[in-house]
Amino acid sequence: MSKFKKSNMPDHISPMLCTLVKKPPKNSNYLFELKWDGYRIVSKVESDQVRMNSRGGLDYTKRYPLIAKALKSLGHDVILDGEVVVFTDEGKPDFDAIQLYNGHETSIQYCVFDLLWLDGHNLMELPLLKRKELLKTLLSDNEVLKFSDSYDDGEALYQKTFEMDLEGIVAKDKESPYIAGYRGEYWVKIPTRKRQEFVIGGWADSEKTRSFKSLLFGAYENGKLTWIGRSGGGYKLSEMPAILEKLKKIETDKSPFVNKVLDTKGAKTHWVKPQLVANFEFAAWTKSGRIRKPATILGFRYDKKAKDVVREIPKETL
């Protein structure tokens, strides 16, 4: 690292992002990693002070005291990128558990996959392979800070994640730099199931005992919120009144979507300010770019800003 001049550590780095593709790339320039089902966190340690930022820039340090303590114990000034994950007894990521994490009693790990800064040196221009080599040495034998391994055979790893019902894999160009906030072909993601985050824009009334019939959602395109689909499943009846109460607090008279909402089947529709983000699983895209059939909600995402949620239609394999 001698060729790198020392410089001040930046206050904030927006995480590098992945492009959605249909299949693992066959290009040998890529390495492959598991796609962890947790909260994306960029961590900064400087002069024994720790700050853990969500993808949207929120401070999550106090939420994960065990990880903050482990970061401080490294004894280095660093910036790391990774995913905070709670694992089941079978070793699978449990997204519901990370949402309910109690701070101290539940076992938690920080699955770290990139090293951006080390002891005054900006490493973001180094090739990914070199950054991961330094990262592995830094995290050796650490029980809380887990080094995210890389694999050469993307198709085999994808098949394994599919059989284990894991979220998917990520493919990364071995020579790629780390470009803050960039979404391109350096990093691509291949999920085992069709799931994405969308922005809630309204709800449809229910004629039954349920608090609501469905949520209406969309994503941003060129800075405008476009309606994409609706979700009528995945809700626990005991949780629906609280969700409805949350929606009523941000209710508004005008639709936040730039296009017309279809397929509400005559139900009365209410609109909300586009502030809430949730994760959904769905069957397929239509040719018009909407969700085919109602989606199933998997949970709300408070770590992401609504404006950062864009439509992602998978590209052909690289």
TrEMBL record:
<dbReference type="GO" id="GO:0003910">
    <property type="term" value="F:DNA ligase (ATP) activity"/>
</dbReference>
<dbReference type="InterPro" id="IPR012340">
    <property type="entry name" value="NA-bd_OB-fold"/>
</dbReference>
<dbReference type="InterPro" id="IPR012310">
    <property type="entry name" value="DNA_ligase_ATP-dep_cent"/>
</dbReference>
<feature type="domain" description="ATP-dependent DNA ligase family profile">
    <location>
        <begin position="101"/>
        <end position="235"/>
    </location>
</feature>
<dbReference type="GO" id="GO:0005524">
    <property type="term" value="F:ATP binding"/>
</dbReference>
<dbReference type="GO" id="GO:0006281">
    <property type="term" value="P:DNA repair"/>
</dbReference>
<protein>
    <recommendedName>
        <fullName>DNA ligase (ATP)</fullName>
        <ecNumber>6.5.1.1</ecNumber>
    </recommendedName>
</protein>
<dbReference type="Pfam" id="PF04679">
    <property type="entry name" value="DNA_ligase_A_C"/>
</dbReference>
<dbReference type="Pfam" id="PF01068">
    <property type="entry name" value="DNA_ligase_A_M"/>
</dbReference>
<dbReference type="InterPro" id="IPR050191">
    <property type="entry name" value="ATP-dep_DNA_ligase"/>
</dbReference>
<dbReference type="InterPro" id="IPR014146">
    <property type="entry name" value="LigD_ligase_dom"/>
</dbReference>
<keyword id="KW-0436">Ligase</keyword>
<comment type="similarity">
    <text>Belongs to the ATP-dependent DNA ligase family.</text>
</comment>
<dbReference type="InterPro" id="IPR012309">
    <property type="entry name" value="DNA_ligase_ATP-dep_C"/>
</dbReference>
<dbReference type="GO" id="GO:0006310">
    <property type="term" value="P:DNA recombination"/>
</dbReference>
